[in-house]
Structures are given as structure tokens and as C-alpha cells.
Amino acid sequence: MSDSTGNQSHGQPDQPDSSGGQPPGYPTPGQQPSPYGQPPQGQQPSYSDQYAQSPYGQQSYGQPAYGQPSYGVDPDKRPGTVTAAGVITLISSGLLLLLSAIVIIGAVAARETFVDQMAGQPGMENINPDDVVSFVVVVFVIAAIWSVLAMILAVFALRRSNGARIGLVVSAALTVVLSLISITSIVSLLPLVAAVTTIVCLFAGGAGAWFSRSSDTGGGGWQSSPVA
To answer: 174, 109, 99, 179: which is closest to 141 by C-alpha?
Structure first.
């Protein structure tokens, strides 16, 4: 078979032209590489090339690189453990506040009755019943104030205040100590269980990272931040 120039063609492969060009698919000497690190035409990119070409430093197959948040997950969403700690504190402190109010009102309104009843009890000969009633009132006033402070700390902790979180942990720890000292029945176990659960929840389930991100962005202290 002969071509239009009269040269014989015997099935030989195409030879490079006289200009020294390379076969298609390979860059000629001095040719600029493809933009964005793309390999020359005809070559399959390696795994490392695919990783480098991925936008935002993501790996191929849609997997985010280390340190990148997963799509669909809000890193600023409040963890469920923090919500649980706040709810437990609000409920337990609210019940203690209600009980304190009942005891204080009853002791003040019926002080004389309480004094007379205690005066006739065995073992009260050397104790002034009036002092006992005053002591009980003071104790429950302190409990009421403590309950209010714990509820305030819980609200600010739910609003991502790391300072309130620390204060709430200290309050719960003191509750644990006092509950262990004065434990007398199953009912007295309730404050102990609530306090221990609160402390655990404030450190579990990503709570520490959630509060740390607030501190890193200047949202710590008593400032609030939006939560989902």
C-alpha cells in the first residue's frame, strides 16, 4: 500500500516527525505541565495526585482530611450531656428551693409551736429549743440561696459559659460531700446521685471540647453563645 506521496507503508508504526515531536499524550521537552497538577494526557493520576487535587485538602472519595469537620455535623451544637447536666441541676435545685421555702415559712409562722413541742422531748433539757429553730431556719436559708445560685450556673452553662461550668462542678462536688456526711435514708441519696451525674455529664460526650471551643473564640466566662 502506498500513501499519496508514493512511499510504501508496510504496517510500520508512526515514527516521530522530523521536528522531534513526541507521540500524543506525552509532553514535549520544555512543555509546561498541566494546570493544577494534572498529569499529562493519557496517564492515570496517582493516589497522592488525587489527594493534592482535592479541594480544601480533602481526600478522594469524599472523605474529609484530618481536622476538617464532617459535613452535616455542627461543631457548635450543644452536647446532650451538657443539656442533661443543666436539666438535672434545675430540677434538683428547684425541689430543694421549694422544700427550703416551706420549712422557712413554717418555722417562722409556727415558731412558738415548734419550741413548745421540742421542749417536751427527751434529751432537750440542756438545749434551748428556740436556738434549734433558729439554726434550722439559717440552714434552709443557706440551702435556698445555694439552690438559686446553682440554677443560675446551670442556665449560663447551657449557654456555653465555661466559668459557669466550673462553678457548677464545684457546687455539685460540695453537694456530694455534704450528702455523704448527712446520708440517713434512701431519700437523702437523691441529691448525691444528682450531683454525681451532673459532674459526669459536664465532662462526657464532647462537653469539654464544646466549652473549649467557646473559650478559644472568646465566648467563655459569662458570655453566651448561640446553641442549636
So the answer is: 99
